[in-house]
Design a protein that fits this description.
307 residues
């Protein structure tokens, strides 16, 4: 389940007492990427809320979000276990518990297994088997496709985007309704949105990624042209997908206005990145992308017409 964080140290932990309970718990939160996985759970919420009433199905929603969070935490632990040696070479990841040596490899494996087993069993028993299978597929793509591909090809970001968008389908699957327009739009928008979001980080942190041996820039792009061009194309595609409900007359008039404003903002920052390709502009695009997606999803939830 892939949603990346910016090129800063992810861990603000000072280990005064390596055996302290508070530091151990903090390391578990880092190992399971609790902060990042809040976004994963949030997209699961969107997939659910677009298809079912929250008020009458709130307990099912909570069970779905809990199961998704457990699986996401297990996937994050597996990812860090596999990448522990590479994480030591990156500023943003060198203080992770496995990379820094506070946890052993077997600890990462056990944490991953426990979280994954709990998540799968919970989703199967408390929600339905379809959510469990989608969560399992997300784990497989993230850990066994995206994670190793990062060391060989920039196509990894497309694979990772698929894994990152699947939580929307987990939320949909929990409702038991048929696949429909809103699920499709929310899924594709998230998939496409991740490309400019991640490429902004990849350019901003390119020295870090190169030092770790990760090939995340298109064509090993030294000048940033292909990176910025790809970011702009996928940002434009995201905006285009967001207007499909308008063309199908499935939203109120406020959706068009809100979508137009949001689209203008994300395209503005994508265009700036295409022209300048500086770290400062990349950071601006990253921040704009973080604002764009939740606002777009909020528009979907507030302005959609019931079929």
């Amino acid at each position: 389940m892939k949603l990346e964080t910016p090129c800063l140290s992810e861990n603000k932990i000072v280990v005064d007492n390596p055996n302290g309970c508070s530091n151990w718990f903090a390391d578990i939160l880092v190992l399971t990427k609790a902060r990042v996985n809040v976004l994963v759970v949030a997209t699961t919420f969107v997939g659910f809320a677009l298809n079912a009433s929250i008020q009458s199905n709130w307990f099912l929603l909570l069970k779905t979000m809990l199961g998704t969070a457990l699986v996401a935490g297990g996937a994050a632990a597996a990812n860090q276990t596999l990448e522990r040696r590479f994480d030591r070479n990156m500023v943003r990841t060198q203080n992770r518990p496995l990379a820094a040596g506070r946890f052993r490899r077997r600890t990462g494996i056990w944490v991953s297994v426990i979280f994954l087993a709990a998540g799968y069993l919970w989703l199967d028993a408390a929600v339905n088997v379809r959510t469990m299978l989608l969560a399992f597929l997300t784990f497989l793509i993230y850990v066994f496709a995206y994670t190793p591909l990062k060391r060989f090809t920039s196509a990894c970001i497309l694979v990772g985007a698929v894994a990152g968008a699947l939580p929307v389908l987990i939320g949909w699957a929990a409702t038991g309704v048929d696949f429909g327009l809103w699920t499709a739009v929310a899924f594709v928008a998230l998939l496409l949105w991740q490309i400019p979001h991640f490429l902004a980080i990849a350019w901003w942190c390119r020295s870090d990624y190169l030092r770790a041996g990760f090939h995340v820039l298109p064509f090993d792009d030294e000048r940033g042209y292909w990176t910025a061009c790809s970011a702009f194309i996928f940002a434009a595609a995201t905006v285009a997908i967001s207007f499909v409900p308008v063309l199908l007359h499935r939203v109120t008039g406020w959706y068009f206005l809100g979508g137009f404003v949001l689209g203008t903002v994300i395209l503005f920052f994508s265009t700036r990145f295409l022209i300048k390709r500086t770290i400062r502009v990349a950071r601006s695009l990253f921040i704009a992308s973080l604002i764009y997606l939740p606002c777009l999803y909020l528009l979907m939830l507030l302005c959609r017409k019931q079929a």
